[in-house]
Design brief:
Chains A, B: It catalyses: precorrin-2 + NAD(+) = sirohydrochlorin + NADH + 2 H(+). The structure is a homodimer of 277-residue chains. Chain A has helices at 30-41, 57-65, 102-114, 152-165, 170-187, 194-207, 210-213, 220-225, 236-276, and strands at residues 12-16, 22-26, 45-49, 71-73, 84-85, 90-91, 94-97, 119-121, 130-131, 134-138, 141-146. By secondary structure, chain A is α/β, with parallel strands linked by helices. A five-stranded parallel beta sheet of chain A has the order 4-3-2-7-8, with helices on both faces. In chain A, strands 5-6 form a two-stranded antiparallel ribbon. Chain A has a two-stranded antiparallel sheet with strand order 10-11. The interface between A and B is large, with 80 and 79 residues.
């Protein structure tokens, strides 16, 4: 059997969706500021709970200058009521703490877990439903390096190596492939075509290299889509050739027009000259 | 200000902890089998809900030959009661579906969300609390490549590039750094030493390269720890030199012992020879 061998002892790496979800961040120091960046990059609605004297430089900047914190409550954590939001005591969708108070952390953690609210307590791994890793971001591309808490600093070092291995145009390539997929969905919209669409998109992504995919544009996408009808993938060179050919008639039109303008002008000038004489 | 620039539009990449948690996996095809591998690699307790005729080759192998599925319920999904576990209708900690039935998928999703149970519905992104990415595993190291659903196939291509950028000894390096940290915690156990411990560990990880860290062993770890007392990091070459020097006296002892044995034997033989004569 050639199925992948199981390798227990890891975590389940996932991309949590936070767009518009309400997150409570308890704390205002350096670690909390780092968490805030991760949350805002995931489009969360963030409430920060922290006494004013606990705010670090970055958190102050994010709250006062950038104003990216959706709600700032200038109090230290002291009671459970602070863990709900709104007037009706609604639940947050996620709670993160980054404070130097193990007892309060443990209390917040137990409270959240009892309510099935995903919770992370910075620097207290056993209290966490999930850990953070070291992250690379290139537009729609996100890469996380996790050592399951065994080597957070080493994770950062490995992340740097990986950053060098991701070409700068990778984000573009992903955007362009997204556009190609949308365009394909327009010409093949039926749900029963879904498997064929996915299989053809795979073929495209495996035939073209990442740097070639990054060159896809409004002109070349229709040319690639021509392959969809007989389920083939046009070669990159072929598409670029057709793109040039497609430009050529337009270039000829422009040249003809300019020739017309020039000769007309010449005739008018000549006539004017003659009339003048 | 030099704080990182926010880049909205992404997801929150996290390492979810599933050790001993109960997960319901609805479906038995190729996608479900892939999910099972991710779940078992994270030490989850997995229940598979799928009619026998819906089981694919890999899932059959995992259930019957490998026996890594903790509980197999040979029924198709048809009613909400199947979404709870145990005799008292306890909640699962996570629910994943990978079935070709959009209506059932949507129902399972709505049911789970109403109960704050993290849920993923394969191929139906809007129904998901979280997405999966393409994953690299090297012992305790896990790397996830996510395109936020924009290019799952491209993610696989990028993952392959990254795989080549991670040296094979990286898993070893993480394990060894973990051993160094445990040894450090033994000689500096107090909680108030935590910040100093973390800072010194960072220095070690940034002074030694990954391949050098992978060479740490029971002999060299105490030598590196000697630097802790004055908060310095011994150079790799210095530690390897000391390790050789540490071997040398032992080698000398062994040599002296052998010399002793040989000469004693020679004397005895000589005496015996003389007596015999």
């Amino acid at each position: 059997m050639s199925y992948p061998t199981l390798e227990p002892g890891g975590s389940l790496l996932i991309a949590w969706q936070l767009r518009g979800r309400r997150v409570l961040l308890v704390g205002g120091g350096e670690v909390a500021a780092g968490r805030l960046v991760l949350l805002k990059n995931a489009d969360a609605h963030v409430t920060v709970l922290c006494a004013p004297e606990g705010l670090g430089k970055e958190m102050k900047y994010r709250i006062e200058v950038e104003q990216v914190v959706d709600k700032y409550i200038p109090e230290p954590y002291s009671r459970e009521e602070q863990l709900t939001c709104g007037e009706n005591g609604e639940m947050y969708d996620m709670i993160l703490t980054a404070i130097d108070d193990p007892e309060a952390s443990r209390e917040i953690c137990a409270w959240s877990r009892a309510r099935h609210i995903p919770v992370n307590v910075a620097d207290v791994p056993p209290e966490c439903d999930f850990y953070f890793g070291s992250v690379i971001r290139r537009g729609p591309l996100q890469v996380m390096v996790s050592t399951g808490g065994k080597g957070p600093r080493l994770a950062r070092q490995i992340r740097q190596r990986l950053e060098n291995a991701i070409p700068s145009y990778t984000g573009d390539a992903i955007e362009r492939v997204g556009s190609l997929r949308s365009a394909l969905r327009k010409i093949a919209p039926r749900p029963e075509q879904s498997a064929a669409r996915m299989s053809w998109m795979t073929d495209v992504c495996e035939t073209w290299t990442i740097d070639q995919l990054a060159e896809l544009d409004d002109e070349s996408i229709p040319l690639v889509l021509e392959g969809w009808h007989d389920r083939t993938v046009p070669a990159y060179s072929q598409v670029m050739q057709s793109k040039r050919n497609w430009h050529w008639p337009r270039m000829q039109n422009v040249a003809s027009f300019l020739l017309g303008v020039t000769s007309t002008a010449a005739i008018i000038v000549a006539l004017a000259h003659r009339t003048h004489r």
